[in-house]
């Protein structure tokens, strides 16, 4: 159980890291706009870097949202069911999500490894590596799959996933 708790803390940390990406995107955009306005010179690669940070913002936060139980759920229905049925339904939906996200994690990991092996780059005004974004997406889905596995384990042993004490 300590390992599961450590993974959850790591997922929360990754959520904070995704929040830092918002700050960095803001800095890059403000600096780029200021340099364009003052010196008519943009920051080369600012758009591409902001896009990479946007990917980090979204995908590194996936598991954190699941850890804090902030994902969309049909609680209107679940809250009116008897607790035993609600627990079974919660376990069933968690297992379905685990299977679906695990498949996505598997394929995104394969794509990230391929992209890394060929050092995939974008072509435009500035060549920018694509493999970091693909790697971030894979990491996000792997962490989400692990969090869903943690949730399933807690549900199987009878702990409420909202209060894992």
UniProtKB/TrEMBL annotation:
Keyword Membrane: yes
Cell compartments where the protein resides: Cell inner membrane
Chain ranges passing through the membrane: 12-37, 49-67, 88-110, 130-157
Domain spans labelled Tripartite ATP-independent periplasmic transporters DctQ component: 25-153
Protein's membrane topology: Multi-pass membrane protein
Statement: the UniProt record of this protein carries the keyword Transport: yes
Keyword field: Cell inner membrane, Cell membrane, Membrane, Transmembrane, Transmembrane helix, Transport
One Pfam family here: DctQ
Cited function: Part of the tripartite ATP-independent periplasmic (TRAP) transport system.
Assembly and interaction partners: The complex comprises the extracytoplasmic solute receptor protein and the two transmembrane proteins.
Family of the protein in this entry: Belongs to the TRAP transporter small permease family.
Protein name in UniProt: TRAP transporter small permease protein
